[in-house]
Automatic annotation (TrEMBL):
<feature type="transmembrane region" description="Helical">
    <location>
        <begin position="124"/>
        <end position="146"/>
    </location>
</feature>
<protein>
    <submittedName>
        <fullName>Uncharacterized protein</fullName>
    </submittedName>
</protein>
<dbReference type="Pfam" id="PF04882">
    <property type="entry name" value="Peroxin-3"/>
</dbReference>
<keyword id="KW-1133">Transmembrane helix</keyword>
<keyword id="KW-0472">Membrane</keyword>
<feature type="transmembrane region" description="Helical">
    <location>
        <begin position="166"/>
        <end position="184"/>
    </location>
</feature>
<feature type="coiled-coil region">
    <location>
        <begin position="32"/>
        <end position="59"/>
    </location>
</feature>
<dbReference type="InterPro" id="IPR006966">
    <property type="entry name" value="Peroxin-3"/>
</dbReference>
<keyword id="KW-0812">Transmembrane</keyword>
<keyword id="KW-0175">Coiled coil</keyword>
Length: 202
């Protein structure tokens, strides 16, 4: 026992320093391992998030392509039929072509100046109809694709969040119908303006 006390007194400082160094080393080793574990967990979480983001992007891309297909195959052709009918109604060329055909079959019904005037009006109305059709088809296509994509994006987000998407669908349809009517009214007004201006050229 006495020798143990002597040993302690002689080597007390060395023992404490050694114990301190060993304890600090053990503590630093544990701290390093914990830090490495946290980094590994964080990397796994980031990899999982990246994989989830890629899956979500792929799903969103597929959803976007489906929405584009729906817009191109259902919404757009229906709207184009309506637009074509409205343009044909406002910029009607059938009366002019009928009169020209009658004049061709019966040369005495139209004078050369009347034929020239009818041909001139027909050219102006045809050109106007072509320009209005190009402009209206482009604007209508853009409008419908934007609206359907906005609606599709909202529906996708609501579905992804697990919300009731049917309420949003009804709400969106109720919002889109007046907008489409307003757009059709603008198109009709523009077509009438073009028709009046082309009539003034005649």
């Amino acid at each position: 026992m006495l020798s143990l006390r002597n040993f302690w007194r002689r080597h007390k400082r060395k023992i404490l320093i050694t114990a301190g160094v060993l304890g600090s080393g053990y503590f630093l080793c544990k701290l390093y391992n914990a830090h490495q574990q946290k980094l590994a967990d964080l990397e796994r979480e980031l990899a999982r998030q990246r994989a989830n983001d890629e899956i979500i992007k792929a799903q969103l891309q597929g959803h976007f392509e489906n929405v584009q297909l729906i817009a191109d195959t259902t919404s757009l052709p229906h709207a184009m039929q309506y637009l074509r009918a409205r343009i044909a109604e406002v910029l009607d060329l059938s009366q002019l072509t009928e009169r020209l055909q009658k004049g061709k079959g019966q040369p005495t019904t139209l004078t050369p100046s009347e034929k020239f005037e009818l041909w001139d009006r027909l050219k102006i109305l045809s050109f106007t109809q072509m320009l209005v059709s190009l402009w209206a088809v482009t604007m209508l296509s853009l409008y419908i694709k934007v609206q359907v994509n906005i609606l599709g994006r909202h529906l996708y987000i609501d579905t992804a969040r697990g919300l009731e998407s049917s309420l949003l669908l009804v709400r969106s349809i109720l919002i889109l119908l007046p907008m489409f009517k307003i757009y059709a009214h603008i198109q009709l007004s523009f077509a009438r303006t073009i028709s009046v201006s082309s009539g003034s050229f005649c």
